[in-house]
Every structure is written in structure tokens, then in C-alpha cells.
Amino acid sequence: MAAVGLSPPRRGNGPLARAFRRFAANGAALAGIVILVPMLVLIAAYPLILGHRPNDIDLLALNKGPSAAHWLGTDGVGRDILVRVLQGGRISMLVAIVSVAISVAIGFLMGSVSAMGGRVADTLIMRFVDLAMTLPPVISLLVLASITGAGIVPTIAVISLLSWPVLARMVRARLMELRERDFVVASRGMGAGLGHLLWRHGLPNSIDILVVYATLQIAAAILLEAGLSFLGLGVPPPEASWGNMLNAARSTVVLEQYPWQWLFPGAALVITVLAINFVGDGLRDAFDPRSDLN
């Protein structure tokens, strides 16, 4: 009797491989990568490429337009706009990444403990999340910023404290369904503690939510930092920030006569946020299993 031939398992057909293919087929997401990667390289490596520092003053080049010496021109005290735009990108990315990392950690812990910790923990945590979500975000942001004061660390603290409640609800919704699965019930029956359940089951099954949320939230955090700095409640001068560069260029004289002082930091802010949002939308579609049905 002839043996029945079995076809070998297809490689590259797992969830991650399918997600990667969906992401690679997303033109907007790839455009975001093409824009974002060179910008991040310039932000990280500009001290090795350019001969100016963010606060170097050239008294012979006050309010000068783009030239061979200063590619994007100078500001009212002779500082190089290009270097300050790149340094502002460093500050914005630092604030955004650190604040989002903190808010993701808080949101995951709150949501997962609420789902896995029992009825009392669920009730207490969810009522606290409801309270946090009822606070007006703009007013809360301004109040917290005025209390903590200006600076990089206070700005990170303010943004991270306002960004986690939505993620906590998303993680809780995912893990509420997960905790009824046989392997989680079996782990509980074998005496697994809360830490084991969160690390071995909660985190791996929430990683798609965390990645997509973090990517999209980085763009929101950059906008929040720029807004706070524009209002004088974020990163204070003379440290370069896209927000305080726009604030310094808000006078009518600068807006009309020296447009390079607000045009380039504003363009960097818009392009960066758009690129990150394109990547975040691509990741969201890539991790959505319903995309295979389209």
C-alpha cells in the first residue's frame, strides 16, 4: 500500500509573518518609514555632520535667511535654525518615547491586574480609570503642567500621567476574554500567581495592542510636548524644542519678514507626526486579523 504523502508545513505563514506582509503592502506605512528613518538618523547624528551647536550665537548673522553657512537660516540671536530643529527633534522624541513607555507600563499593569486580579481589584481599578477619564484632558494638562513647572522631566511626567487610562481599558477587554481560556484556567489550578499570569499569558497576548498604541501615542505625545512648550509650560528656552521655537517666532515681524524661523520647525513637527501616524495605522491594520478577510 502506497504511503500517503503529506505536504510539509508552509513556512512564513504564522501570525507575525502575515502581519509583516500586510504592513509591507501598506503604501502609507512604508512612506512613513521612508520619511521617519532618515529623520531619526539626522536627529541622532547631527553633531557629527554639522559644525554648529544649538545655542551657538553668530552675531554677524542675526535673522539671516538660508545660506551656505546656515542652511535653514538663523534666528533673532544668530542661532542656526537647522541645528535647533534637529535638537528640538531630539527633545521631542525623548519626551515622547519616555512618557509613552511609562504610560504603556501603567496602562498594561492597570488593565491586566483588573482583568486577572479578581472582582475587587477589577472594581477598584476600573472606578479609578473612570475617574481619570472624566477629567477634561486639556484643563488637566495645563493644571498639572503649572504645578510641576517647566522642564523635560516634568513634561514627561505630565504626558505619561494623562495617557494610560484608554490603554488600561483596551488591555482589560483583551484579557477578560483570555482569562476564560483553558490554558489560563489550568495555570490558575496549578497555583500560578498573578505575576506569572501577567508575564506568561497577559503580556504575550497583549503585545499587538501595546505596540500599536505606543506608536500612535508617540505622535500624540510629540504634539502635547510642542503645545506645552509653545505655552511656556514645557521645555523652557534656551533648550531647543519645536514648541518653544514656534513660540519665539510668533511675533508679527517674524511671521512676515523671517518666515524660516517658524516654517521649518512647524514643518518638522507636522511631517514627523504624520509619518508616525502612517506607521501606527499600518501596524494597526497589520495586527488586525480581520484584514485577511478583506
UniProtKB/TrEMBL annotation:
InterPro entries, alphabetized: BP-dependent_transpt_permease (IPR050366), MetI-like (IPR000515), MetI-like_sf (IPR035906), OppC_N (IPR025966)
Residue intervals passing through the bilayer: 28-49, 91-112, 151-171, 210-235, 260-280
Compartment(s): Cell membrane
Keywords for this protein: Cell membrane, Membrane, Peptide transport, Protein transport, Transmembrane, Transmembrane helix, Transport
Entry superkingdom: Bacteria
Primary residence: membrane
ABC transmembrane type-1 domain span: 89-280
Membrane topology label: Multi-pass membrane protein
Family: Belongs to the binding-protein-dependent transport system permease family.
Family matches, as PANTHER family: D,D-DIPEPTIDE TRANSPORT SYSTEM PERMEASE PROTEIN DDPC-RELATED (PTHR43386:SF1), OLIGOPEPTIDE TRANSPORT SYSTEM PERMEASE PROTEIN APPC (PTHR43386)
UniProt protein name: Peptide/nickel transport system permease protein
